[in-house]
Fold this protein.
Amino acid sequence: MIGTNKATETLLKVENLKKYFPVKKGLVIQRHVGDVKAVDGVSFEIYPGETLGMVGESGCGKSTLGRTILRLLEPTQGKVIFEGQTLNELSREEMRKIRSQMQMIFQDPFASLNPRMRVRDIIGEPILIHGVLNRVEREKRVSKLLDVVGLSTHHGERYPHEFSGGQCQRIGIARALAVNPKLIICDEPVSALDVSIQAQVINLLEDLQAEFNLTYLLIAHDVAMVKHLSNRVAVMYLGKLVELTSSEELYLNPRHPYTIALLSAILLPYPNQKKGRIILKGDAPSPVNPPSGCRFHTRCPETQDICKVMDPELIDIGNKHFVACHLTIHTYEKIKVGNSVTNHQ
Amino acid sequence: MGRDLLIHVKDLRTYFYTDVGVVKAVDGVNLEIGIGETLGIVGESGSGKSITAMSMMRLIPQPPGRIEGGEVLFYGKDLLKLSEKEMMKIRGNEIAMIFQDPMTSLNPVLTVGEQMIETIVLHQKVSRSMAKRRAIEMLERVGIPEAKGRVNNYPHLFSGGMRQRVMIAMALSCNPKLLIADEPTTALDVTIQAQILDLMNNLQQELGTAIMLITHNLGVIAELCQKVLVMYAGNTVEYTDVNTLFAKPMHPYTYGMLESSPKLELRKQRLDPIEGHPPDPYRLPQGCNFAQRCRRIMPVCEREKPTLLEIEPGHFVSCFLYERVKI
Ligand SMILES: Nc1ncnc2c1ncn2[C@@H]1O[C@H](COP(=O)(O)OP(=O)(O)OP(=O)(O)O)[C@@H](O)[C@H]1O
Ligand SMILES: Nc1ncnc2c1ncn2[C@@H]1O[C@H](COP(=O)(O)OP(=O)(O)O)[C@@H](O)[C@H]1O
Ligand code: SF4
Ligand code: SF4
Ligand SMILES: [Mg+2]
Ligand SMILES: [Mg+2]
């Protein structure tokens, strides 16, 4: 271990990560005609024991980001550093070992479970793959895991189709926990479930985090749920992060025009809440040929000339509140200049 | 009730007879919609929302399904008693329907224009060129840019949000009295959902079409509906106006559902879920369908099924907690 070195304060560090999918045309001779820029230069850190939420609309690259971090997809560019080790530099064998530290929970609880396997074998599979326990120990651990996620040992004898959506998600969570991971990437863990069942799984995720000191990267589009579970939240738009801050700050003081529109579009479960809703024009553009400059400029209510030509960087505007928008940077510069003037007086 | 009812569904029952048993998908649903009114239907998946809508339109696949009882009164006339030919005049013309996934209801090999013209000519007895003009006008109205050109496009050339706009244009092209929208925004992102709901709201105010909106999203209900019907395992469990439902939910399921979702504007507190899961539709309990999960269960709840009663003026609830009040 690296001891008290600063590096231990971040569990996972993502540096300028990119994942492009080539677009090919032609039936016989395939020509490379472009790229789907699913993830296009994303950087952030996750601290041990925290939950970092990742929100954004369908197709903005959330799942691709999660899978590229785990190297289920090879990155096009950039680095993923887990506990000080750069994953991209690891051999296959080293990667296999470290993968037990990082697990994933998927959106579709049914599709992510093998229908021909008994539940106990599904949960025991990662233990088998990582070869950490013998058969007796493994069975004991599977029973313990079933108990931890609120199922009983006899459920282990059944097959996935005999379970409801919420129960299947519990099985998926038990499988992810089987090899004592440090980090779990939860990709839309409750969005396929009914409201009343969502609350059960959300509480379970919280309890497990406290009990096993887990760190979560929580990918979801439901902002209320993400705010509830996360310490910090990142907002993604067309392959890039546009804002990153604590979940309270994001809700109370959103700074990026996209975040502001996203929050204002959320329908609260109360009647007569017709606040000044921002209705964005059009759809999100295609990630194949993303707009020049700021990618949000085609829909942004605040677009300036500079936005069409220059891509704003993700900048700390104070207290680790990161925003990628020319407007914020300019107003911030103005405030800073204003402050320093008053300070001098 | 004394108001002008457009549609009044009484004790609707639709069952499916499958190899493994009988599914009572809809087992006693009651609802009413006034002229120009918006009714929201909420409930978990499998609670019978879509089958209620399909039964009202007489679109149940038969076999395995069968409408076993009840009435669907449209301007006082029972749709369940009409011949198929009479029903075809109602569908798409007097009552139109849009679905969660627009691709399943758009024909991929016909242009959007061809599909719209077909419906308009069938119901409105106008020429094809008149129908085309009407189609373009409707597409413009729902915010399709360059509608004159886009009318000749095939459905796959439209994005998800655009397809839902096309569906709405198509559904409203014959000026229906009632639009049934089954999860119209569930597949869409929140910013696109906001666009579509805004559009539906404006169109309703302009055209005065009544809407029956099926959703599992309580925010959508709060935004768009005047009345709300809550379904659980094939039954109507609560029915009232939207303000009362959110301010004073009476059925334990409604109460639990409202309590269990995270609230964006509140400081974090632990969620209070409804434990357990809905009953197996093949093996519904003898008593109240919610009994296994109910915190206020009483001995009678396991023996008998509660009936939907008007507990307060305009507030209908199906639960023994309130039947005792009446007795
Ligand atoms: N294997 C692939 N080949 C080509 N394009 C892909 C591939 N996987 C994803 N993409 C594209 O990359 C972009 C990002 O996809 P991704 O699945 O990461 O989105 P997402 O944010 O998870 O969306 P959702 O909220 O719908 O799950 C999309 O445009 C998608 O079509
Ligand atoms: N063709 C069918 N055969 C058998 N059961 C069906 C069929 N269609 C629907 N059901 C059942 O009817 C019940 C209600 O379904 P549905 O109305 O689609 O629910 P939702 O409220 O999610 O719209 C469910 O239990 C469903 O499985
Ligand atoms: S950089 Fe410009 S276009 Fe982009 S979000 Fe800011 S104001 Fe809008
Ligand atoms: S009838 Fe009984 S079990 Fe059913 S909801 Fe009411 S109190 Fe609960
Ligand atoms: Mg995804
Ligand atoms: Mg449905």
Observations:
- The interface with chain B takes residues 57-58, 164, 166-167, 194-200, 202-203, 206, 221, 223-225, 227-228, 251, 261-262, 264-274, 277, 279-280, 283-284 of chain A (CB under 8 Å).
- Chain A has eleven helices and twelve strands.
